[in-house]
Design a protein that fits this description.
The protein is mainly α. The protein has a single domain, classed as MFS general substrate transporter like domains (Growth Hormone, Chain: A), CATH 1.20.1250. It contains 16 helices and no strands. Helix 1 runs antiparallel to helix 2. It is globular, with a radius of gyration of 20 Å. The protein starts with 25 loop residues before the first helix and ends in an 18-residue tail after the last helix. 59% of the residues are buried. The N terminus is likely disordered.
Length: 424
């Protein structure tokens, strides 16, 4: 098979998908509910940590360091984590990773309750980063074991909807719990419960060993890099989102906007954090009803440009209502990008490489948020939060133009349902 995805003549007799096709699968329903509980927990930790750090330090630097601290263990562990996901039952790895996340949340609760040193918050965040390094390749590569290929796009749309519903609930609940008692401890305890609920759900799913379990050689560890590099369309999609989110992310600075610019307090911070998730959930639900994209690569470029414009609008806003609208739009545009990228990964990647490719995908995409948080915190400390966010949106627009120019095949990519796994 050629190194580029082939586009045979697809059978498009039906203009609309069966919107509930993936949800009829019992394992997927259980997986979606459990992951929602875990995401709610993760979001509560993010809100509570951000508010607690800014409340105690009144500086943008500690907020930026959150992303850097969580990213550090991922850079060290991403290769072995991806390899383990291809050698051992992915369900078991996911259970181990989310148990570590629960332990980290309980550690943060103890630090908060005792008013311990800020440095201990970062120790717990290192554990969060290590756990997420193992969670991502195992959880995301578990989906193809639960869903047949023809339902990948529909399943990703529903999982994205559930994810965003949790991302709405988590920040709002975390902000409410923090504001209620002027203390982040209850939010951290509730976050630990959410992670343990996901572990319980995973324990009820089948533990399937992968078809091929190769020895842990250096060549095997770097196979994911090699696969992505040989297939430019996949590389282009990941690069686009990596740098767009890196420059265009505003989430890390929301505590500053909530307290010093919009003056809405921790409860308002929770709603600001929830607004992108609300937009993403609405858009993800719409994608379950819309016909398949005929040019998904072109849709990816357009939506990332829309994300950048909405980020600029948020950075310049002084109104809570306008800020909520702009954040809603960033989430809506990002939802399309997420569904397209995840489906590309699952359709184009051979099963034997899914763990390693997913691990790298997570570093490119998932932790671009954390790295973007460090970039935002650093530039905000030097230039102020408004210039940091608005300037980042402008840089994200430049990234879209560069990717469209360097990888023109991305815009010409055919329907996702017509693509097949590439050579490993």
């Amino acid at each position: 098979m050629s190194s580029e995805p082939t586009v045979p003549k697809p059978e498009l007799g039906h203009s609309r998908r069966d919107a509930l096709a993936a949800l009829r699968l019992p394992h997927l329903r259980a997986f979606a509910i459990g992951r929602m509980a875990a995401v709610i927990g993760t979001q509560m930790v993010s809100v509570a940590v951000g508010w607690q750090l800014y409340e105690r330090t009144h500086s943008a630097w500690p907020l930026g360091l959150v992303g850097a601290v969580e990213l550090a263990p991922v850079l060290v562990l991403m290769l072995p984590a991806g390899h383990f996901a291809d050698r051992f039952p992915r369900r078991n790895m996911a259970m181990f990773a989310h148990s570590l996340l629960a332990l980290a949340a309980l550690g943060l609760a103890l630090v908060s309750a005792r008013g311990a040193a800020v440095s201990l918050i970062y120790v717990m965040l290192l554990l969060v980063g290590a756990a997420r390094a193992f969670a991502s390749p195992s959880v995301s590569s578990l989906l193809p074991q639960l869903v047949p290929p023809e339902h990948f796009a529909n399943a990703n749309a529903w999982l994205s909807s559930c994810f965003q519903l949790a991302a709405i609930t988590g920040p709002a609940l975390g902000g409410w719990l923090t504001a209620l008692g002027h203390d982040a401890t209850p939010a951290f305890v509730a976050a630990a419960v959410g992670q343990l609920l996901f572990v319980a759900v995973l324990a009820r799913l089948p533990a399937r060993r992968q078809a091929r379990a190769a020895a842990a050689s250096a060549r095997d560890l770097f196979a994911g890099f090699s696969f992505i590099w040989r297939h430019p369309v996949f590389l282009a999609a990941m690069t686009l989102d990596l740098f767009a989110v890196l420059f265009g992310g505003a989430v890390a600075l929301l505590p500053i906007f909530a307290q010093d610019i919009l003056h809405v307090g921790p409860f308002g911070l929770g709603w600001l954090r929830a607004a992108p998730a609300l937009g993403a959930m609405v858009m993800a639900l719409l994608t379950t009803r819309l016909p398949p994209w005929r040019r998904p690569g072109r849709a990816l470029l357009i939506t990332v440009a829309g994300f950048a414009l909405a980020t600029i609008g948020f950075g310049l806003s002084r109104s809570m209502a306008l800020s909520m609208v702009c954040l809603f739009l960033t989430g809506a545009f990002d939802a399309v990008s997420v569904v397209i990228r995840l489906t590309l990964e699952q359709v184009l990647t051979p099963d034997a490489l899914r763990g390693r490719v997913s691990s790298l995908h997570y570093v490119f995409i998932g932790f671009s948020n954390e790295l973007g948080g460090f970039e935002s915190g650093s530039t905000a400390a030097l230039l102020g939060p408004v210039l940091s966010v608005a300037g980042g949106g402008i840089a994200a627009l430049v990234v879209v133009a560069i990717v469209a120019s360097v990888w023109p095949d991305l815009a010409r990519l055919g329907p996702l349902a017509s693509l097949r796994p590439l050579d490993s």
